[in-house]
Amino acid sequence: MTFAHLPAGFITCTLLYDVYKHRIRSYKTYLFWGLLGSVLPDFDFAYLFLFDEAGTNHHVYITHYPIFWAVLLIASAFWLHFDRKSQLPVSAFLFTLGGFIHMFLDTVSGRMYWFAPFSYSVLSGDNMLFSIAPDYAQSHRHWGYGVELLIIFWAAYLYHRNVNSEESEVSALKKDT
Q: What are 99-139's pLDDT values in tens digits?
């Protein structure tokens, strides 16, 4: 996926906000860590362009190892469970959840190595679709773009819903005064 990582991070933050709002001191900080985690795995492009003359597929870097993100996610979930007051574990959990969701999104339209560094066998949404429904996959080669558009539209819907609810709250407060 190319464009859906940041919207997916926004969706994650929006859906989990009510669960953690009592621990959040700054919504901007909350949103920052969730959005950063959703795009951080692709920061390995900087290394790819600056230092990797061989042009290695960036999905073989540690930032694209699902096991790496799973370990961080589990550790942050434990921290979140045992520290029930601070915003830091919430930020860490959102950050690592964003990275882990990034792995799933890259699997939809790309080739991912889910068991790296132990095994570099490829898992791909395209390969799975071809094995399950070859006729559909043959006639809908760009189905991943549809998934990406759905994520973007969902994030836009949630954003506009939030903006409209904030505007209605402000107008209700003005009527009360």
A: 999 999 999 988 999 999 999 999 998 888 878 888 877 77
Separation CA 37–CA 94 (nearest Å): 7
pTM assigned to the model = 0.90
Amino acid at 88: L
Alpha-carbon Rg for the chain, nearest whole angstrom, is 19
**Residues forming a β-bridge with 123:** 112
Domain ranges of the chain: 5-172
d(CA 123, CA 110): 8
Please, are residues 105 and 1 in contact by the beta-carbon 8 Å criterion?
yes
Tokens 């007051």 — which residue? 85
Residue type, 60: V
Using DSSP's 3-state secondary structure scheme, residue 146 falls into helix
DSSP for 66-120 reads HHHHHHHHHHHHHHHHH--S-SHHHHHHHHHHHHHHHHHHHHHHSEE-TTTTT--
Q: Are 11 and 154 in contact (CB under 8 A)?
A: yes
Q: What is the Cα–Cα distance from 18 to 132, expressed in whole angstroms?
A: 37
